[in-house]
Every structure is written in structure tokens, then in C-alpha cells.
Amino acid sequence: MLLKRNAIMTRLRPLLAANWKMNGTRAALSEIAALRDAVALGRAGRAELLICPPFTLIHPAADLCAASGVAIGGQDCQEQPSGAFTGDISAEMLKDAGAVAVIVGHSERRRLHGETDATVRAKAEAAARAGLMAVICVGETRAERDGGETLRVIGRQIDESVPPKSSGGGIALAYEPVWAIGTGLTPSPADMEEVYGFMRRRLAALLSGEADKVRLIYGGSVKPDNAAEIAGFPQVDGVLVGGASLKADEFLAIVSAYR
Ligand code: PGA
């Protein structure tokens, strides 16, 4: 296992993002308060913490974390700024509620809500329009992986979901292999090296100089017991954590791998 850190690891500020999915009522705000307090004590080192709770908690969470080292984000947005779209939330509304970022193109949205690469790109463009960072998710399914399609799928998702005018700081790219989400499985070191090298080159073809500033993060069964290993990959600039981000103590155990 590669555990050495190189210049890339220290060059970009690690982004440690929590994706709460459809979990959490107001009682869970105490977890966010605990994270805020831990960050105030320096527990996150130089890493940036981004908590993405359900829509209903964004405003109170942002209030709790005002002027703290913890940022709040959404898990999805609609592409239009406003209008007759029952049940949808715009990027501008997220911003107004106190969010600074939004996850777009998560595989659960792609799969369960039929989001295409074009939809994801429109959402990432909406995020930029509203002044939010877009955390754009890509990743292959188990069948695509078994068929040797991993790089082809990720390449297409990058080409078609990342807005070509993105600024490097305006997006982050999360590699989340669908087969690794919620399963306890993670890619091998060789797979990680291949995928992250590929993603960086593909972004460079799309964004030229800006590509070097884009954080490439990893998501899929990140847990306290594999966080140090993931933090040790020099090409990986942080994590997107689902299940293990719901409790402050467990998420902080992951965060401590970045100190
Ligand atoms: P997991 O989810 O950490 O529970 O595997 C990650 C994600 O879906 O973002």
C-alpha cells in the first residue's frame, strides 16, 4: 500500500465532504454542532469540511456553522433558478439558505431519478451561476467494471457532466464507484492510481490550466479504518463520505487521517 504523501497531497486543500443522503431530522443538528466545535479546536488541520445534510437542515446547519470552519452544502439542485417545478430546489435557494456547495450527479440521482450527464452538467452550471461549488460525481457500475468499461464510462461522464467553462476552484470531482457505495468494498491501490491519473488528464483536456486546481476526491465505503489508506494516495484530494458521516465521532475519525 502506498502511504507516502507527495506534493500533490499538500498542494490542494483536502475536501472532506459528508453526504447525509435522506437521513437526519433536527435532532441530528447536534452532530453538526459537535463537528463545528471539533474543527474550532483544530481537529481538521488544514482540511475543508463540507456537510451536506437534507434540504430541511441546510438553513439551521448553516446558522450553527456561521463563521466556523465547517461549510454546508446541498445534495442536489434543479437547473432553473425558479419557476413551476413542484418539489424542486434551485441552486439560488440553496445559496440563500446558507449553502456554499452542492453535490450533483450522485449515482443515486442518476439511477433513481434518471439524471443524464446533460442534466448533471446543467445542474453544475446552475451551481456556478448561484456561486456554489459543484461536487460532481462520476463512477462506474459493477457491470461496467466487470466489462472493462471503467475508464470509458468515467471519461464520458467527465466530458459530458463537467461544464467546460468551470473554474478549478468552482468544482470538485468525486470518483464514486457505484459498486463501492454502501458495500464495504473499495478499489485496489492499482485501480485508484489508474483512475485518478486518468481523471486528471481528462480534466486537463477539458479545462486546460484550471484542471490542476480541481480537487479529485473519493467516495464509496470510506470508514475510519480505511481513511488513512485513502488519505495516503497522493492523487486523491479528499473524500465524500455517506454512512460514516452521520455521527460526528465517526466522521472525525476519518477527518483525523488528514491532520
Ligand atoms: P457510503 O456512501 O460512504 O455510505 O458508501 C458514499 C456516497 O454515496 O456518497
Describe this structure in words.
By secondary structure, the chain is of the alpha/beta class. 41% of the residues lie in helices and 15% in strands. It contains eleven helices and eight strands. Strands 1-2-3-4-5-6-7-8 form an eight-stranded parallel beta barrel, surrounded by six helices. Strand 1, helix 2 (29-40) and strand 2 (48-52) form a beta-alpha-beta unit. The chain starts with 6 loop residues before the first helix and ends with a helix. The model is unreliable at 1-10 (pLDDT under 50). It binds 2-phosphoglycolic acid. 2-phosphoglycolic acid (PGA) binds at residues 19, 176, 181-182, 219-222, 240-244.
Which H/E pattern describes the elements? HEHEHEHEHHEHHEHEHEH
Unreliable stretches (pLDDT < 50, length at least 5) are 1-10
Q: Structural class per helix/strand content?
A: alpha/beta
What is the rounded Rg?
Answer: 17 Å
**Cα distance, first to last residue?**
20 Å
In total, the number of strands is: 8
Mean pLDDT reading: 95
Quote the beta fraction: 15-25%
Bound ligands, each once = 2-phosphoglycolic acid
Give the helix tally.
11
Largest sheet: 8 strands, parallel, barrel
